[in-house]
Write a structure and sequence with these properties.
- With about 350 residues, the protein is of the alpha+beta class.
- It folds into two domains: about 150 residues, Beta-Lactamase; about 180 residues, Reverse transcriptase/Diguanylate cyclase domain (Alpha-Beta Plaits).
- About 45% of the residues lie in helices and about 25% in strands.
- It contains eleven helices and 14 strands.
- Strands 1, 2, 3, 4, 5, 6 and 7 form a seven-stranded antiparallel β-sheet that branches. A five-stranded mixed β-sheet has the order 9-10-8-11-12, with helices on both faces. Strands 13-14 form a two-stranded antiparallel sheet.
- A hairpin with a 5-residue loop joins strand 5 and strand 6.
- Helix 1 packs antiparallel against helix 2, helix 7 crosses helix 8 and helix 8 packs antiparallel against helix 9.
- It is globular.
- The C terminus is likely disordered.
């Protein structure tokens, strides 16, 4: 009982989804005697469901986040037939058996009719009623706290992450960036990284073109619908490991994790084309302008965001409905910057 209470205290003490994932699998692993427990993220891409492990703990080991090894959406849900049936039937749980005879239990975390998260618990023997009762209690606390975090971290109109969450996520990304970037020779090294196709982090700022005109001509209800549909396109166009935010009004921000310049440009351009080719009810065609930049530990959040903003302004001033890369504009002499401390001056 003391152990259960301590786990409940740990779970409800976090204000971060990633740490909450770590807490819940640690609790389930210890209290159910599982051989492995994972938090699975469930995403929809092109109308198909995909599964990707977000956090994992194995018997005798420590719980840790699982970073994706590729830029794909994850495993097809077809690899998890019991879970697929569970989601289709909107059931509370599903059970299956592995090739090695182990038992697997899936517990989707339902919010209404949607489940973007699922716990997967692997056990060497069948689950006892006592273990199931204990796990269901932990999952109920986890679901309620996930809901509270979503309420504080997500934009109420689009369901995307909000500005407050962006500040935290960008600070973490900058902290995790290559510390060597602060050494002399940063510009030369960045050029080498681009030539070698080194994986980096990226920040993109997206603005809906002529959005005021949409509101003026069709009204704010249709304007809101445009924002919701663009939010849906953002979630389907970008990868599960990327983070998408509504920054305010008609502006959105995306943090792209661990990919090359070529791949980042391709992903961002694909989204721009998706918006351009989408039919928005009543409104018709809508386009977006996008500016993006690399994320470096040598730059503060203000400077990083300022670089992407300048690329965005360049895109809007030169025809709109286009993607502009900040470092490329600077190298081509189309933008000049003078950076001082935590502020950036552009001219």
């Amino acid at each position: 009982m003391d152990s259960l209470l301590q786990h409940m205290v740990d779970m409800t003490g976090h204000r971060d989804h990633a740490m909450l994932d770590i807490s819940v699998i640690s609790a389930v692993q210890e209290l159910s005697g599982a051989s492995q427990t994972r938090v699975l993220g469930i995403s929809t891409v092109g109308g198909q469901l995909f599964v990707r492990s977000r956090a994992c703990i194995r018997s005798g080991g420590a719980a840790c986040q699982e970073e994706p090894q590729d830029s794909g959406p994850g495993e097809s849900i077809a690899n998890y037939p019991e879970l697929e049936a569970c989601l289709r039937q909107r059931a509370a749980r599903a059970e299956g058996q592995g090739d090695d005879g182990s038992r697997r239990l899936w517990l989707p975390i339902w919010f209404g009719e949607r489940a973007n998260t699922c716990l997967e618990i692997t056990h060497d023997s069948p689950f006892t009623p006592e273990a199931l009762y204990m796990v269901n209690g932990i999952v109920s606390v986890y679901r309620n706290f996930q809901n509270l975090l979503d309420y504080s971290e997500r934009d109420s109109l689009t369901g995307l992450l909000n500005r407050k969450t962006f500040d935290d996520q960008l600070a973490r990304m900058l902290h995790a960036a290559d510390v060597d970037a602060v050494a002399p020779g940063l510009a030369e090294r960045r050029g080498q990284q681009r030539q070698l196709g080194t994986e980096q982090q990226w920040l993109a700022v997206i603005d809906v073109d002529h959005f005021k005109t949409v509101n003026d001509r069709f009204g704010h209800l249709y304007g809101d619908e445009v924002l919701i549909l663009i939010a849906n396109l953002l979630q389907s166009s970008f990868r599960t490991q990327d983070r998408v935010f509504r920054f305010g009004g008609e502006e959105f921000v995306v943090l792209l994790r661990s990919t090359t310049l070529e791949n980042a440009r391709r992903i961002i351009e694909r989204f721009r084309i998706d918006v351009e080719s989408h039919h928005f009810p009543q409104v018709g065609q809508v386009t977006v302008s996008i500016g993006f930049t690399s994320v470096s530990a040598a730059d503060s959040p203000v400077v990083t965001l300022g670089h992407a903003d300048q690329a965005l302004y360049f895109a809007k001033a030169h025809g709109r409905n286009r993607v502009c890369y900040y470092e490329e504009l600077v190298e081509g002499g189309l933008l000049q910057t003078v950076t001082t401390n935590d502020t950036a001056e552009f001219f």
